[in-house]
Amino acid sequence: MRFFFIIIISLIYININLLAQEIDSAHNSEPIFYFGAYLGLDFNHYFADFDKLPGYANCCPKFTDGNGMGFSLGLATNYPLSNRFSLDTRIGLSSLNGLLSKEQIIGFTEIRNTAPPFETTDITNAISNYEIQTHIQTIGIEPAIKYSFDYGITGLMGFRVSFLNSSTFDQKEKLISPNNVVFKESGSLVRNEFKLRDIPEVNSLQLHYIVGASYKAVLKNSIYIEPDLLYYLPLSNISSVDWSVSQLQFSVAALFPLYKPKELKIVNEEIIKRDTSLISILGLDKETISLVSSNEELISDKIDENTMVERKIITEKYERRVPQASILKANLVAIGVNPDGTEVKDPTIVIEETEIYETFPLLPYIFFNEGEDKLSNTAQKLITKASTSQFKEEMLDQNTYEVYYNLLNVIGYRMKKYPNAKITIVGNNNNMGIEKGNKGLSKSRAISVMNYLTETWGIDPNRINIQARNLPKKHSNNDYSEGLEENRRAEIYSDNFDILKPITIMELNRTATPPKIKIIPEIQSDIGIKKWKLGISQNNQLIKEFTDKDNDILWDIEKGKIPELETPIDISLNVEDLSGKKVDISKPLEIKQLTIKKKREELV
């Protein structure tokens, strides 16, 4: 670590000297302000008087002290107040990391046989170690008053106001002697272990007194580096328990001077730019020229250290209007585009309705996360009790996943429809890892499913039978991750086929032949088009609209509003050229409807 900081300080020193050579040496006045950055190494010491953190079990008799290391970095400023005094301010990050540790002798510890009848073979003393490793980072401001002694030595006093940016801890209790005993409750050498937990009841605001000394090494042009040795005395606790952190910090700051700006000689120039555009206007009697816009722009250019040129650039735009007769013609071409890419000019559009029925079998399994029995963490869509009256299985989307996600809602809906039907819910686990032999977890999974049906859907609990197993009766292979996931489930069985029978969903589909109409506006103008608009309507009701901003005019009939009446489609085009001349044309397309009612009447 020492070698690392020597390298950092050497690099800072070399770069500052290079930068100092580039700063203007003509400054004869004293700097009015310094700014820069600092980097520090912190030695943290904990003062403590507590046995455990709120909400976390710990058998430690009492934590008293601890130590740790961290770093500090940030921005540094210095404002001279007089020849001796100055205001020094730092803003940055600081680490308050450390380790609280305590050992305890646990007397009269029994050593038992590992096999029944587990008789006691010896009594000895055990030693347990208690640790709390903290990871604390603050961001704050450190104002201080500095006094300059002779020979570049300075002293300072101030305070730090900081806020906790992050505050977590790791905790564990570990038996370190003898090596043949374990904690009874955990069955291992470690208990009460927590990792990366937020420190409870933390004090976000941290206050410290600061005292210290430094050495000011001045380089060229008033640039200086300053090694500091600072001590931070705590005024507040880390959390609600009696626990504070002091710091001994070794840091290095590099600061650069700011001077009053020099007065510059300003030279003014004016440049005028003119641009004229030609516009042809239908019906104009004589040529005219008029100013359309005028804009001023000021550009500053420093040509040397003492002279600044300010150029005022005036840009003027004129319009030259000349008489011009225009020609404007328009025509519409409509082409039907079939799915195979073939095209039909001026087609008759056929709108057909089709009823589509699709059957979805029910998968009566609810899959749970590892070690969990919460229904809210499964794929099931859970609704409120008030929403059950609006639920209908016929309204589900024709989608296998959507049907499965609503499995419990479908079962609740059907059990209300068939009040004599009963179900059996069998909770299972994958009998591996944390779930091995845990029938209590299996039962909790079955109960969470039952609670949703009884509390949300109002199903009588007497109609539901609960069972629990380890592996399902027909289980998947636990040698694969997919098998482990599939075996963490609750299975639903019923004495009534209507409860778990497949779902049949009907969807009304409307299609068009041809499905797309390509419209080509043929416009002829000798002076250019200002704008055009194309509208598709039926019985004066607008269906689709295109403008000159659209690259392709392709009407996808099945997207958006589909025509419903057997009255012609009207395609209208409105064109305006640059002279203001307008042309309006329209073109009809025939419509034929094949509704479900009509097809039944015609036996189609």
Could you give a quick summary of the protein structure above?
The chain has 604 residues and is mainly beta. The longest helix is centred in the N-terminal third of the chain and has 21 residues.
General description of the model:
- The protein is mainly beta.
- Helices cover about 10% and strands about 55% of the residues.
- It has helices at about 1-20, 400-405, 405-415, 440-455, 480-485, 495-500, 595-600; strands at about 35-50, 65-80, 85-95, 100-110, 120-150, 155-175, 190-200, 205-215, 215-220, 225-235, 245-260, 265-280, 290-305, 305-325, 330-335, 345, 350-360, 365, 425, 465-470, 490-495, 505-515, 515-525, 530-540, 540-545, 555, 570-575, 580-590, 590-595.
- Strands 1, 2, 3, 4, 5, 6, 7, 8, 9, 10 and 11 form an eleven-stranded antiparallel β-sheet that branches. It has a four-stranded antiparallel β-sheet with strand order 16-15-23-26, with no helix packed on it.
- α4 links the parallel β19 (about 425) and β20 (about 465-470).
- The longest helix has 21 residues, at about 1-20.
- Residues about 1-10 and about 10-25 have low confidence and may be disordered.
